[in-house]
UniProtKB/TrEMBL annotation:
It is a multi-pass membrane protein. The keyword Acetylation does not apply. Belongs to the ATP-dependent AMP-binding enzyme family. This is long-chain-fatty-acid--CoA ligase. Residues 456-532 form the AMP-binding enzyme C-terminal domain. It catalyses: a very long-chain fatty acid + ATP + CoA = a very long-chain fatty acyl-CoA + AMP + diphosphate; a long-chain fatty acid + ATP + CoA = a long-chain fatty acyl-CoA + AMP + diphosphate; tetracosanoate + ATP + CoA = tetracosanoyl-CoA + AMP + diphosphate. Its EC number is 6.2.1.3. One of its GO terms (biological process) is long-chain fatty acid metabolic process. It comes from Gallus gallus.
Length: 580
């Protein structure tokens, strides 16, 4: 009963061993990649990656162990570049192709990649950061036949001239512990963190689709970005692993979704919760149920959307999984229980010892008993998911940031000296041991009936040219439901706060309910102890100008600017005469 194993990503290890293989890719000429209307069979990809590997080694002088950043949209080149780098024993840092400017530079340097591979479609974004990259000694290339940018070489001619003779899939020095990929997770401190994904993790995650029921004759439709693990490792990796066909689309489109599924005879789709919500919200069509999709693999699907989706689009199996890129274990619903992300069983407990512990949301920290240890929650209660860090469930942390890595580790949980990965997620287990995702710790608050994801707001504000670092949280306002958005900001050295430009920027980039109503300027954002405590104190101090000595600003919708907060405005908010 292999199916039983699959609840934990850690359990996949066993599955792999049963299959007797250590490396994930099956090189049969079975599947294919279809992107727009370019079709690559597996052997096309294999030959193309051989050429690329040789050209990279020769022209870029790549050495095993080096990291190369790719800054590409969802294109077939992503796949052969990945394979080529694997053959050279190089790690690939997957830069988010929507990120610009300072955030892009940060992502590059976090992975210590001194080569960036991009393409001419991203010319403007590349040119914006090129002077900085050059100064940092970084070389940039386009995977195209010509380059429109001076100082950026076109690499395609060299690739096409190289030999496509077979070469080993992996460098001899590659082991399961080698760093394979860096995936950026939107961190709680604004700038993304580069999570290290080892070869072992690549194998385990690429096996997830198989475990969810992906078969060789399936056609998988991937609209998720390849710079995240769901698209790259589960989608593309999963297809490579079982020999299925992958239909790659540059961007998700709700109106094109089912037409694409029909046109390419898609049998399996990948989703995130929002994607399913968009599909459910799109206008009904007579042919909503005419498709060959039998399975959907993804995460973040709420029970209500899940029901609606099935009612509207027909009987599709849904494999909802739970897991963080950097996490050391995950779950899959292998039962089909609506809303559940998985079910606990002995196997899971044996492979990944996880616990749900009591969490104090106000204080933003786990509750500890009189001996200083954490407390397990009872069935039906929501608790913080923590997963024991062991040899078989290791935690690899974030590149070049031991401080952030340490912050994800919870120590002395049940006995002195133990260590758990702090998932930052609140889950609930019911009487029948089904697990349900509830919320992210400190990451979301509700305002005007909408969920505000602080990480998204932070990622957006991080783009503002005078902002160095930002921390977003919700503050209670007397007489208002939910919490009102507030941002603590550290300015770039030598820059000053510009209320009008921040107003315009947030109006253009954020939904109105997500734009922070209050901004507080701090000069010590990152050195105020651990991040969680720091958010807790900020929430406590709220937006009271009588307490806060930092410069404090209020978003004034009439003046279309962030204006200095004063006791007058404060009093008007409290007595309700100024309606937020
Ligand atoms: C540039 O290269 C990318 C990656 O290989 C490719 O997808 C794109 O079509 C190329 N663009 C042009 C104009 O050739
Ligand atoms: C492979 O590893 C060995 C032992 O660590 C080292 O001596 C050798 O230089 C490595 N080979 C390459 C090509 O990096
Ligand atoms: C989809 O299936 C139909 C019927 O089997 C076939 O005629 C068509 O060529 C297939 N489409 C693609 C893109 O493979
Ligand atoms: C991995 C797995 O078994 N997933 C199951 C999740 O639930 C659906 C039903 O909605 C099942 O069909 C899947 O097999």
């Amino acid at each position: 009963m292999l199916g039983v194993l699959v609840a934990a990503v850690a359990g996949l290890l066993l599955l792999l061993l049963l299959h007797g293989r250590w490396f994930p890719f099956l090189w049969a000429d079975l599947g294919a990649f279809v992107a727009l209307d370019e079709v690559y069979t597996f052997s096309d990809m294999e030959r193309r990656s051989n050429r690329a590997a040789r050209a990279f080694a020769l022209r870029l002088g790549l050495q095993p162990g080096q990291t190369v950043a790719v800054f590409l949209p969802n294109v077939p080149a992503y796949v052969w570049t990945w394979l080529a780098l694997a053959k050279l024993g190089c790690a690939m840092a997957c830069l988010n192709c929507n990120v610009r400017g300072r955030a892009l530079l940060h992502a590059r340097s976090a992975a210590r990649a001194d080569i960036v591979l991009s393409c001419s479609e991203l010319q403007a974004a590349v040119e914006e950061v090129l002077p900085d990259l050059k100064q940092e000694g970084v070389r940039v290339f386009y995977l195209n036949s010509t380059s429109p940018t001076p100082g950026v070489e076109a690499l395609l001619p060299a690739i096409e001239a190289a030999s496509d003779e077979p070469m080993p899939q992996y460098h001899t020095n590659t082991t399961t512990a080698s760093k394979a990929i860096y995936i950026y997770t939107s961190g709680t401190t604004g700038l993304p963190k580069a999570a290290v994904v080892t070869e072992m993790k690549v194998m385990m995650v690429a096996n997830l689709a198989r475990i969810c029921g992906l078969r060789e004759n399936d056609i998988v439709y991937t609209t998720l970005p390849l710079y995240h693990s769901a698209g790259l490792l589960i989608g593309v990796g999963g297809c490579l692993e079982v020999g299925a066909t992958c239909v790659l689309r540059a961007k998700f489109s709700a109106s094109q979704f089912w037409d694409d599924c029909r046109r390419y005879n898609v049998t399996v789709i990948q989703y995130v919760g929002e994607l399913m919500r968009y599909l459910c919200n799109s206008p009904r069509r007579a042919n909503d149920r005419e498709h060959g999709v039998r399975l959907a693999i993804g995460n973040g699907l709420r029970a209500t959307v899940w029901k609606e989706f099935l009612q509207r689009f027909g009987p599709i199996s849904i494999s909802e999984f739970y897991g963080a890129t950097e996490g050391n274990a995950g779950f899959i619903n292998y039962t089909g229980k609506i809303g559940a992300v998985g079910r606990v069983n002995v196997f899971l407990k044996a492979f990944a010892s996880f616990e749900l512990i009591k969490y104090n949301v106000e204080e933003d920290e786990p509750v500890r008993n009189e001996h200083g240890f954490c407390i397990r929650v009872r069935p039906g209660e929501t608790g913080l998911l923590v997963i024991k860090i062991t040899k078989s469930t290791p935690f690899h942390g974030y590149a070049g940031d031991s401080q952030k890595t340490e912050k994800k580790i919870l120590r002395d949980v049940f006995v002195k000296g133990d260590a758990f990965f702090n998932s930052g997620d609140l889950l609930m287990m019911d009487q029948e041991k089904f697990l349900y995702f509830q919320d992210r710790v400190g990451d979301t608050f509700r305002w005007k009936g909408e969920n505000v994801a602080t990480t998204e707001v932070e990622a957006t504000l991080a783009m503002v040219d005078f902002i160095q670092e930002v921390n977003v949280y919700g503050v209670p306002v007397p007489g208002c439901e939910g919490k009102c958005g507030m941002a603590a900001v550290r300015l770039k050295p030598g820059q000053s706060f510009d209320g009008e430009s921040l107003y315009t920027f947030t109006r253009d980039t954020l939904p109105i309910y997500a734009a922070p109503r209050f901004v507080r300027i701090q000069n010590v954002l990152e050195i105020t102890g651990t991040f969680k405590q720091c958010k807790g104190n900020l929430v406590k101090e709220g937006f009271d100008p009588n307490i806060i000595t930092d410069p404090l600003f209020f978003r004034d919708e009439k003046k279309k600017s962030y204006v200095p907060m004063n006791p007058n405005i404060y009093a008007n908010i409290l007595d309700g005469s100024l309606n937020l």
